[in-house]
Design a protein that fits this description.
This protein is of the alpha+beta class and 273 residues long. It contains 5 helices and 16 strands. The chain has a 16-stranded mixed sheet that branches. The longest helix is centred in the N-terminal third of the chain and has 14 residues.
Length: 273
Amino acid sequence: MNYRPTIAIAILCLVTAFTVPTLGQDTASIPSTPTVDEKSQQIIDHAIQVLGGQSYLNINSVVGKGYYTVFNQGVSQIPAKFLDYIVYPDRERTEFIGGGIKTIQTNVGNTGWLYDGGPKAISDQGPTQIEGFKLAIRTTMENLLRGTWKKEGGKIVYVGRREAGLAKRNETIRLTFPNGFWIEYEFGAKDFLPAKVIYKRTRKNPDTGDEQETSEEDRFFKFITVDGITAPWVIDHFTEGNQTSRINYESIVYNQKVPDALFAKPDNVKAIK
């Protein structure tokens, strides 16, 4: 399963001006050996086992269906249906249907394209959308648990326990990259299920042009086990403590063969499927 609100991040890239933390690294500044302290490694190992152990680590594709809902000042808007195809390590296609209009956003590594069913137009994604996709990948639970972060020379340290409701606490670890960008991951202290992902990014005020740092947070709920793999079927995203979106899965299929053609940019609108 992909523990990431990639859908929410992608939508934000389309409608909101913001600055994505620099993802490129100066290889000279990356330590030869990434580091993780003993306590953090224990938490990671426990989480992997709870999520399915080797079955979880062996996932190569995820196909999910459900509803994506935007929240405006705490009020949910009309949900849109989505169909999401993920092929590791860096391919994703998400189809939305809302108000009778179909839109598609597809990313493959450093490239991406969009289909807008309103004007029936195909376009390339701009730098902001591409970097937003990379940010979404970088902040996922997968990046942590599958060890992808090691390629960038990150450092993981144990932060401690945090209150997480009545008689509940979360174990917290922090992943920091050489450029200073950090992500905090919280897991249930008793069940070791993923609970939260927290990071910060810089938004640009569309009215004043001023930049301000905001706290972003993903919260995971409704864990369901399919084919020996456990995943959250509800993912809520919060900005500065206010809910901005919800992803609610209705079905998830693992390791299904996904045709390469789905990720290729169509030559024309008639080729859209």
